[in-house]
Amino acid sequence: MVSHTVSLLKLVAYERVSTARQGRSGLGLDAQRKAIDDFAVEKNAQVLARFTEVESGRRDNRPELQRSLELARLTGATLIIAKLDRLSRNAAFLLTLRDSGVRFLACDVPDANDLTVGIMALVAQQEREAISRRTKEALAAAKARGVKLGNPNGAAALRRAGKGGEALRAAVAANADAFAEGLAPVIQGLQANDVTTLRGIAGALNDRGIMTRRGGRWHVSNVRGLLVRLSR
Predict the structure, then answer these.
(1) What are the structural domains of the chain?
(2) Which has the least CB within 10 A, 8, 47, 50, 152?
(3) CA atoms within a 13 Å half-sphere pointing along the CA-CB vector of 34
(4) What does 4-40 look like in DSSP terms, one character per residue?
(5) Distance between CA 1 and CA 133 in Å, rounded?
(6) Per-residue pLDDT of the chain (232 residues; tens, 9 = 90+)
């Protein structure tokens, strides 16, 4: 009688949070870990190790990613991430992943492959360069007209930029969207625990030490703006 042993799919999990505060508190990690754990259970897979990167989205140095890729190579495991779309604008991550030679899975895009990631990397790099160029051009044009942009994110500064400030306003809006997207798992977690009022959410965010995009405390007004942005 011949026995057939079905080998378990081996996974190395890579998770990422964008600030040290999120890394210490676990904010943003719960949703990623749940997605990876649910996938592992569904596929009867074994998670060998987890690597958590605490980094800025603009940094290209990712030691935990390198460690996770090295372990995946040594063990023949597959690198798994929770959401490829959250990293789709991160050219450095995508290029590292594409060139690693390691198999990978993304829970939200399970059919992604090297070609998919390569295309995403090119688009991400071009988008980052275009946003940077448009922002610099808009700031230079506004400065040439005598606009004082002490806080380029300020509403008054954006109004003063006038018709030539479309690119600047677009860049600020993109930054606000990215900030709101990063907080989405936190808001969803609060709402799942019946914290649904504007005042309640503001208090919960302040209690957790989460600051607004401009480094201030949360109030009803900016929570309302955050929820409106997330609902778009």
Answers:
(1) 10-112 (3.40.50.1390), 118-230 (no CATH)
(2) 8
(3) 8
(4) ---PPPEEEEEEEESSHHHHHH-TTHHHHHHHHHHHH
(5) 68
(6) 444 545 688 999 998 876 544 444 444 688 889 999 999 999 999 999 999 887 654 555 678 888 999 999 989 999 999 987 666 667 777 778 878 888 888 888 887 776 777 777 677 666 666 666 766 666 666 666 665 554 545 555 555 555 555 666 666 677 777 777 777 777 887 887 788 899 989 888 887 777 787 778 889 999 998 898 888 7
